[in-house]
C-alpha cells in the first residue's frame, strides 16, 4: 500500500492527469490547491521581493493530488502515463511524482480498514 | 564563496554608531564600510542598486531590523556590513517603526543561491530576541562577529 503524491505544475492538464489516474486503476484521489515556495517568498515576503526574476521558471500555483493505492504496481504505470500527458516529468516546471509506503489506512473508498500486514500475500 | 555569515561579515565592516539619519545616507554609510575595507570596487554602483531595490519594497523587515541587499559586479563574493543606530532611523520598515540594526549584503551577479541562503539564515537568526538584544548591547565589533560565530556553531 502506497501514498502517491503528484504535484502538477501545469494546472491546465488536471483533467487529463485525472483521466490518466483512472486509466491505470486509481479510482479515488484528493486534489489540493497548492502554491510554490518561490511565489510565496517573492510575493508575500518583502525581503525576497527582488528574486522574482530568479524564480521565473517556477509555476506560482499548482495542484497536489494525493491517493492511497493498495496495488504498488500502479506506480510505474502511472509514471509512464503521466510522462506522456505532461510531456516528461524530468522537464522543469512540469510536476513532481513520488510515493511513500503506507502502513495503515482507513476510510478508503470501497474497502475495509487495512494495514500493510493484511495485504501481504494477497493477490490482486 | 561565503558559506556562513561569519565568512561574509568582517569586523572592519561593522559600525556600532552610525551617523546617517535618512535611508539614502544610511545605505551610503553601510556601502562605505565595504568600500573602505576593499570588499567592493564601485561604491556608487552598489548604492544605486541597493536604493533601486528599496524602491521595490523596503527591506526593513520589522522589529528594528533592515537587510538592504543587492547583487552587483562590484563584489566578487558575498560580503556583509553591519551598522547600528541605537536611536533608530526611518527605513520604511513594514511595521513603520524605526530601524536600529542594519545588515547590508552585497554579492556578485549570478550568486542567487548563496545570496538567498545567507539572507534567509540572517533573517531567521534575527527573529531571536536574545540575539537582537546582544547586537544592540555589544561594545566591540569583534563581539558582533563572535555572536554570529556562536549562533552558527
Commentary on this structure:
The complex is a heterodimer of chains A (124) and B (153). By secondary structure, chain A is α+β, with helices and mostly antiparallel strands. Chain A is built from 4 helices and 6 strands; from the N terminus they run E-H-E-H-E-H-E-E-E-H. In chain A, the strands form 2 sheets. In chain A, strands 2-3-1-4 form a 4-stranded antiparallel beta sheet. A two-stranded antiparallel sheet of chain A has the order 5-6. In chain A, helix 1 runs antiparallel to helix 3. The longest helix of chain A has 13 residues, at 74-86. Chain A starts with a strand and ends in a 5-residue tail after the last helix. Chain B is α/β, with parallel strands linked by helices and 153 residues long. Chain B has helices at 5-8, 23-36, 43-56, 112-125, 129-137, 141-152; strands at 9-15, 60-62, 65-66, 69-71, 79-89, 99-107. In chain B, a hairpin with a 2-residue loop joins strand 2 and strand 3 (65-66). In chain B, helix 2 packs antiparallel against helix 3. The model of chain B has no long low-confidence stretch (mean pLDDT 95). Classes of the chains: A alpha+beta (124), B alpha/beta (153). The interface between A and B is small, with 7 and 14 residues.
Main sheet attributes: strand count, strand direction, barrel closure of chain A: 4 strands, antiparallel
Average predicted local confidence, pLDDT of chain A: 85
Distance between the termini of chain B: 18 Å
Structural Rg of chain B: 14 Å
Of all protein chain pairs, which has the greatest interface, and how many residues does each chain bring to it?
A-B, 7 and 14 residues
- How many beta-strand runs of chain A? 6
Keywords:
heterodimer, A: 124 residues, four-stranded antiparallel β-sheet, 4 helices, B: alpha/beta, six-stranded mixed β-sheet, 6 helices, 6 strands, 44% helix
Summarize the structure.
The complex is a heterodimer of chains A (124) and B (153). Chain A has helices at residues 14-24, 37-44, 74-86, 116-119, and strands at residues 2-8, 30-35, 61-69, 95-101, 104-105, 114-115. Chain A has 124 residues and is α+β, with helices and mostly antiparallel strands.
Amino acid at each position: 500500500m502506497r501514498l502517491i503524491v503528484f504535484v502538477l505544475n501545469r494546472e491546465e492538464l488536471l483533467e487529463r492527469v485525472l483521466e490518466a489516474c483512472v486509466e491505470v486503476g486509481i479510482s479515488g484521489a484528493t486534489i489540493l490547491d497548492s502554491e510554490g515556495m518561490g511565489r510565496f517568498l517573492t510575493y508575500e515576503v518583502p525581503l525576497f521581493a527582488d528574486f522574482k526574476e530568479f524564480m521565473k521558471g517556477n509555476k506560482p500555483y499548482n495542484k497536489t493530488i494525493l491517493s492511497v493505492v493498495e496495488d504498488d504496481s500502479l506506480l510505474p504505470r502511472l509514471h509512464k502515463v503521466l510522462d506522456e500527458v505532461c510531456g516528461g516529468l524530468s522537464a522543469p516546471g512540469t510536476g513532481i511524482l513520488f510515493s511513500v509506503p503506507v502502513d495503515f489506512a482507513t476510510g478508503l473508498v470501497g474497502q475495509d480498514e487495512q494495514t500493510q500486514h493484511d495485504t501481504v500475500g494477497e493477490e490482486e | 564563496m561565503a558559506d556562513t555569515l561569519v565568512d561574509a561579515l568582517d569586523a572592519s565592516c561593522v559600525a556600532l554608531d552610525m551617523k546617517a539619519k535618512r535611508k539614502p545616507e544610511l545605505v551610503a554609510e553601510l556601502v562605505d564600510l565595504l568600500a573602505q575595507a576593499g570588499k567592493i570596487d564601485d561604491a556608487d554602483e552598489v548604492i544605486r542598486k541597493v536604493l533601486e531595490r528599496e524602491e521595490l519594497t523596503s527591506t526593513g523587515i520589522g522589529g528594528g531590523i533592515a537587510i538592504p541587499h543587492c547583487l552587483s559586479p562590484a563584489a566578487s563574493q558575498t560580503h556583509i556590513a553591519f551598522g547600528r543606530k541605537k536611536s533608530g532611523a526611518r527605513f520604511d520598515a513594514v511595521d513603520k517603526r524605526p530601524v536600529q540594526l542594519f545588515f547590508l549584503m552585497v554579492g556578485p551577479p549570478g550568486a542567487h543561491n548563496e545570496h538567498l541562503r545567507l539572507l534567509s539564515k540572517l533573517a531567521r537568526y534575527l527573529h531571536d530576541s536574545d540575539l537582537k538584544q546582544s547586537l544592540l548591547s555589544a561594545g566591540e565589533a569583534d563581539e558582533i562577529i563572535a555572536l554570529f560565530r556562536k549562533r552558527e556553531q
